[in-house]
Design a protein that fits this description.
Largest sheet: 7 strands, mixed
Low-confidence stretches: 118-125
Structural class: alpha+beta
Mean pLDDT: 89
Helix content: 25-40%
Number of helices: 3
Radius of gyration: 18 Å
Oligomer: single chain
């Protein structure tokens, strides 16, 4: 591998990592336009492994927007990212696969006299997560004109915990 190819490979890995981070930030912040912009035009998302839906990214974003209203405070972390770039005889291709673990704590919305809130989440002594889930994402990415984009994302939930009996 030449130094130029090695540098291009590092740049691809950094760009892919930025897409995966962008995905987590978009979901956690409820930035659904940003979420959609991370996908190819025919991109799909599959949340069935976590009790959700599967379909075109645009439709799934609408489902997420509605569902995530139940959890106004969420912070999922995507870690242990394994990036496999398409290998074209020593040169990287235009496809990549990422397998990465996630941990996703969330706080349920509470009703108060002033309307729904997250029971003091974010405040010292505030709410602890009501719901925590963990698992693995599988992303398939495609290099496109604007850069790397998600073709598919599949959620493989491994566990979940909710307080109570």
């Amino acid at each position: 591998m030449t130094q130029r190819v090695a540098l291009a490979t590092v740049m691809d890995r950094l760009a892919i990592d930025a897409v995966i981070t962008g995905y987590a930030v978009a979901v956690d912040d409820g930035a659904w336009a940003d979420y959609g912009a991370l996908f190819t035009p025919d991109g799909r998302a599959d949340y069935r492994g976590a009790g959700g839906v599967e379909g075109p990214a645009e439709e799934v974003a609408r489902w997420l927007e509605e569902t995530m209203r139940l959890f106004p405070v969420r912070q999922h972390l995507i870690v242990n990212r394994r990036i496999d770039l398409e290998d074209l005889g020593g040169y990287t291709g235009d496809r990549a696969e990422v397998r990465a673990d996630y941990l996703n704590p969330m706080c349920l919305a509470r009703q108060s006299a002033d309307g729904p809130d997250a029971a003091g989440a974010g405040q010292p002594g505030g709410a602890t997560p009501d719901f925590v889930t963990g698992g693995r994402y599988t992303f398939a990415l495609q290099r496109a004109e604007p850069g790397w984009l998600i073709r598919t994302v599949t959620v493989h939930e491994k566990w979940r915990r909710a307080p109570g009996p």
